[in-house]
Fold each of these.
Amino acid sequence: MRIELNGAPRDLDGSPTVADLVRTLGLERAACAVEVNARLVRKSEHAAHPLAEGDRVEVVTLVGGG
Amino acid sequence: MHAEAAAPAIPPIAIGGFTLRSRLVVGTGKYRDYPVMQAAIEASGADCVTVAVRRERLVDAAGRSILDFLPLDRLTILPNTAGCFSAEDAVRVSRLGREILEQLGNPGAGWVKLEVLGDRTTLLPDPVGTIEACRELVKDGFTVLCYSSDDPIVAARLRDVGAASVMPAGSPIGSGRGIANPAAIRMVIDRLKLADQGGSAEYPVIVDAGVGTASDIVHAMELGADGVLLNTGIAHAQDPVRMAHAMRLALDAGWHTARAGRIPRKLYANASSPWEGVITHIPGE
């Protein structure tokens, strides 16, 4: 299955959830937030949120800014 | 017998349900490295810092996080919506910032520095988009601090849709031009704070953006601002830590100046030494 992850295409095996994706990226302990198709998926919902073909996923964090 | 007189204490600033000990809020961007940023924040005395929300760098996930250099137990993080050019995107980014700060257990999860920008060249706020986004975010429970232009009418509109603070730009972000239009900033402050203009003395107005040097902060405070937010003026100074010290002192100087009652400006001189008893010849007399 192919999704768009942070603006780039990404192929995923099987039928992963948001939680699976976050784990694959090694970010399960990082301070990050996930959006699927421009809607926030809260951390408590990651495991229950399946990804679908063509989903636009953003994984964001905090950076320096003013 | 003459003890050094201490300046009267500067009270904390209340913004919505938040209270900050320091009236200086500093950004965390553009530093050459994180340790310098950390030292500059410390020197500034700020207990609130702004951060931005950006894509996780998936190729370099091992890179150090800014969060490792921010003492989260002592700082309230103020997430911003920098880089947003529509109300819709600003609302999305606000929610993402809140999600991260909730995970971190930082009180900053409850608020946002709202920026809806008009274009990349000026980085001036889009007033229509800012008002729209502010209304939406207030509905969603956020305490909203609105970056705004120095227009008193827009400022009042933002206050009316629930902004907890309006933050007029002194001059464009990162420009270092200080308070480009002091009369306009004064009108924003009066509109929001004077009872006879429908304002309230307690309503916090924070000058945000354009500060290039310490005197700009003094100027903003003299005009009646409750606080100042800046980033580049410290981060890009040759010695950011020393400049952060200067900015903190300037905030204090400006606060006291605004309350000490400055003398009126006059065209001609007014001698400080008495004329009575002079032993000299005064020209024309």
Amino acid sequence: MSTTAQSPPGASAPWWRRLYDFLWEIWGIIRRPSTVFSLGTLVLAGFVAGVVFWGGFNTAMELTNREVFCTGCHEMRDNVFEDLKRTVHYSNRSGVRATCPDCHVPHEWTDKIARKMQASKEVWGHLFGHIDTREKFVDRRLELALHEWARMKANDSLECRNCHTAQSMDLSKQGPRSAEAHERYLFTGQKTCIDCHKGIAHSLPDMRGVPGWQ
Amino acid sequence: MMSRIIRMLLAALAAGAIASTALLAETFSGLRGPVPLDQIAPAPRMTPLDNSTEKRVRNYPDQPPIIPHTTEGYEIDLNSNKCLSCHARSRTGESRAPMVSITHFMDRDGQFLATISPRRYFCEQCHVPQHVVNAPVPNTFMDIDTVLERSVPEKRR
């Protein structure tokens, strides 16, 4: 049995065997105490590396959180971004405006990561051309809109409320219709923003069958 | 003799041409403001829409009521009708908005449909919001009550 015992390292061992040996060696180095670097160096290096990686990660993520990134794909630029340009969230009297992530990505870190992971489905859709023509987009518009409405309904219109808080609403400055509706439905918690304010930033899909619409 | 008449005519024509160019250069202050006729006046500022939500009395019975609120950004197309999300029969309970008139459910043969007749779908063909402006031309319209009152002041109608 001496021939099958231990093949000499690197000779004619299969690739997985060599990979396994390499990883095992690394593991050996990791679990042994350092003999070269002082504890202080290791801690400090670890801290600096942590800052760099964390900062780098968040910076990279924020890069995907800009309008330029969103409108980098023609699906967004030619359809929904064109819709937005006509609305009050794009141009208004005071010049404050909302960009895509303000409404479509949660601002809190944990929720944001969850949403970003969900968005990997959208990358898949882009790569495989789910909505790469206007016709395909129009056909799926209701489905896509229903997703967003469900999301905003579930989080109590969190993204709206990041800017529009009920506490800071001055009803005397609103039109009589808005003031009355907000008093009756918003302040009593009966409804959340998205229940009434659908299609305020994009054109609506075919609304037949959507509650509250004809 | 003939040539004198022709010369006089030519002179009259020339005078007329000069006078008309002078007229063109003159300023008129009518609806277009004090701007010479051959120049384009700056467009007046846009005024806000009346958003009082106060019902206005109709000037005659079959006048389409005007919209006393803003309708900016309201979509009315094949996909959706924003007006109906408040004024439809089934929505008026929640919205407290006036219901679309029952005549709007009729097709052109007078048959009642379950919902708004397609020919009545585009609300703003007849119902329009109002801008807050001073009327540029005085309006002498009188409604029928005023007319009757003035024609037969003593008699009871």
